Here is the input.
Amino acid sequence: MNRLFNFGKTVLENNSNIFSLFRYIPYSMRLGKSYKEHKRLICWYENSSVAERRVFHFDSLKNILDYAYHNIPFYEELYSLHNYHPREFGCLEDFNNVPIINKDDLRKHDLERRSINLPGAIRSNTGGTSGSPLSFNLDDKTFAREWAYMHNIWARLGYNYLDAKLTFRGKNIGEKALMYNVVHNEYIVNAYVDVAHIVESVSNLAKRNPIKYLHGYPSAIYEFCRYLQESGMSTHDLFQGQLIGVFFGSEYPAPQYRNLVEEVLGVPTLSWYGHSECAVLAFETTPFHYNTFPTYGYAEAVKQDNQDEFSLLSTGYYNKASPFIRYDTGDLIKAPCWSDGVLSQFQISSGRTGDFIVDSNNKRISLTALIFGRHHSAFDKVMFIQIRNPAIGRATLVVTTDNDVSMSDFDLSNVDIEFDLETVKVPVKTNTGKTPLLIK
Here is the structure.
């Protein structure tokens, strides 16, 4: 089924002009039963009682816990090693006794020992910002579920699936500045052509087809908006006054990026927290404050020793092809809030924990905090700041700028690292077009 779905999706994407009427088909018809079920489930949870919610969480956790123990060798061996058995799970609070796992634990075992070959399951993987890849399987209803939640998030800025988006995803589409994708009613921006060419194409497009939203990597949208600001172009005229909002995805929405985008475009931005493992999803309420989707998966906050930070754990309710149970996401959060005993809110502590460098004392320094958490006057002169960490206690600041920049433009106090400075004309990007903080 998934192969047929992916084949159809590819045909539609590559022939968007021919199948232009496809965009009018509601997602409930495109994605079917699972999409509709989760749209209803989100509404049900919001209107349910405390007792009903606790029963939902207990039953969902009990189901995936029993299934994994009896069908996945990795979990049977892990729980036996820790003298744990799922029959000990008798109430929601007992879930704290289930052994915690992380990416390294899973990578030590072949995919076959931590997965089951379900019909229609597809192979996926994550490298994340930590750079350590992990392969796993996703069940055949994953993407239908995912879109039910994503559309719920986007609707918070008034999004309707018939609204056209301008999407920045690091795509290379040849000579054209824009390419229409009928599947998501979006115009994909070519990341490999001059920004001036993109702006001209957007201007011509917006005159005949309103662009309501921008969507994509914060760094790419920031770069686009910075060009508009420096060129003195009216964004109201560019988008014919039709722009409603901006959706930030796949990267940490750094305050410096977000502030400039909102200033230039004059519309609100929205981000969310999720990951490739599809075991936890949270939407932004105010900048960098997130509310979890309780029906998507079970999120937990586990206190770090002698710190005000918590490890974010997740348990996916639905993916039995490669279950993730009490999985340490590798991300740190702070200020967690619980509702009826379930983690409901949190703040991102310092971006993805994979983005760090090591000082002379072998201490990890968060790049999000170092770059975006301090006042660097360099931000008035540069477009991007990235870092190389070639050795313990040494790092190179790689700045994208045409201006004169010196070390005095950076606040690097109380950091036991010897820094060098390198200026470049264009930022270092990944194969997918992202602009990472840490250059590997």
The chain has a mean pLDDT of 88.
